[in-house]
Design goal:
Elements (H helix, E strand, L loop, with lengths): L15 E3 L9 H17 L4 E3 L10
Parallel strand pairs: 1-2
Length: 61
């Protein structure tokens, strides 16, 4: 679920995507799916740099 998003119309500047995907412990497959959804959206918008939560893929904190 996307809570808030804003994308600049100026594609010449660097763009940063911050994905606070709310990872779940011991659910790496679900976390991976959330990451892929975010990356697909960021790819459409030509984002240059993406930031995800620490340990979001492993599911361990």
């Amino acid at each position: 679920m996307i809570i808030e998003k804003y994308f600049s119309e100026n594609l010449k500047n660097i763009s940063i995507g911050i994905a606070n995907i709310n990872p779940k412990t011991r659910n790496p497959e679900g976390n991976k799916n959330s990451i892929i959804k975010a990356l697909n959206l960021f790819s459409e918008k030509k984002i240059n740099l993406v930031i995800f939560p620490e340990y979001c893929l492993s599911g361990y904190f």
